[in-house]
Amino acid sequence: MKLPSVTFVRPAGLPVALISSLALLSLLAGCGGGGGSSGSSQFPDPGSSSQGDPIPTDVFNTYWNLCAAPRKGVDIDGKPYPDRQGTLLDELKFLRGWANDYYLWYREIPTTYRMANFDNALDYFNVLKTPALTASGKPKDKYHFTYPSDEWDAMNTSGIDFGYGVTWTRNSATAPRTWQAAIVVPGSPAAVAGMRRGDLLVRVDGVDFVNANDKASVDRINAGLFPEREGERHTFTVRRANVDIAMTLAAANVVSDPVQNVKVIDTPTGKVGYLTFSSHNAVSEKQLIDAFNQLKAAGATDLVIDMRYNGGGLLYLASELAYMIAGPARTKNMTFERLQYNDKTPPQAPIPFRSTAYGFETANPATPGQALPYLGLDRVTVLTTAGTCSASEAVINGLRGVDVEVNLIGGQTCGKPYGFTPTPNCGTTYFSVEFGGVNQKGFGDYADGMAPTCNVADDLSHEVGDPAEGLLAAALNYRVTNACPPVLMARAMSSSSSSSTPAPTPMTLVRPEAKEISIYTRPR
Q1: Greater confidence, 104 or 147?
Q2: Is the pLDDT of residue 514 over 90?
Q3: Contact 391, 19 (CB under 8 A)
Q4: Which residue, 14, 394, 477, 491, shows the most beta carbons closer than 10 Å to its own?
Q5: Is position 514 within any domain?
Q6: What is the number of structural domains in the chain?
Q7: Where's the Tail specific protease domain (predicted)?
Q8: What is the CATH number of the domain that holds 196?
């Protein structure tokens, strides 16, 4: 079932918003999901008029679902697609008017780009954002992306992701590249082929993945990394213990449980609960409830939540998770997150710490309104990396807002105190920053990420959840000693075919940015 976010009541209501940093996958997901440009890789030149095109108004009533190529058939819920025959200009007008009404920094959108200079909607969407830079020289808006709507719906409501079932850590989308397998989903094509956590990617379909920098080679790599059809087969060569291993992967719809490795670790100072949590999607609600019931029954008096690869998701689930950690004593009548929109949007009621299940519609849903279990902790440890984003950061910020001690073990989080309302139109779901968020204390200034309590490199030599794995071992030690381990340099990975002379214009892989998402669903 689709989330209520696809039913828009504009402008009086904003049914679902993403407080994101998306996706959903983490930075470590590298290139998962859709959203590449269907047109040229370069933006068209601005038009000659400094005023640009007139800004359309009332776009949801006038241009929504008017499509140059209307889809036929039914969506994931079996409902007919809402598309009607229109034109590319209708699609562009919808995007421009929608951005003007809801984009957080709508005043900063360049007015010089002309619709007539664009031959597809994705390239036009890409310029409908602020070009401003932060004080450090980074883009002010790093979170502007799209997904094919069917792919987004399947991923968020059913936990289905199309691909091979491997999530990569990555240093860069340009050469020289160092990508290692961080997550290999059990039963996925990657797992069946024998890929393991820590494997270093060295070739794709025979092409040097580390150093390839010409267009033909990069095109072949992209074709292998981002298959388009189920059953499509590509050869990957990985390096493990200095041995190159070739394996053939067939693309498939991969289902992964967002909550895994739920257990209690017995220590001399008490029972420590542990779980890995990879996505705040609708599927995770029931799984989180079951996990906390299990931990509570086992007598857990402390908790380590592993969100090192959690790029975000439903903000209501972040609120529920925070409540299940802290319980009612600290959270009653407190604000989990207050959303701050642009000056065109009326103030919204703050999101509380939800003590009952929303009941997202999935194959195995939680009962709407059921009381949530809780541990009632004053302290919690979160394992983090640069892939910890959005809704995951909102959990941390929300708990700190009510004085729960949250210790971060691992790396700096991605820094995304912003959110979206996912907006579908003509087969594409658009994500454009609509709001920022602050906690009970009014704090939400972590655009550069949240610093770890202990800086510990991700340990790809052990499986996630192994007490000997670097981040978890450091977390278990810190709770007893309040001391961080010595900072160790990440293991250097190199290729025997490394290039000594980089090309002057590096070729970039498709979809280099992650899509971290958190979703806000308004109350029923």
Answers
A1: 104
A2: no
A3: yes
A4: 394
A5: no
A6: 3
A7: 271-417
A8: 2.30.42.10
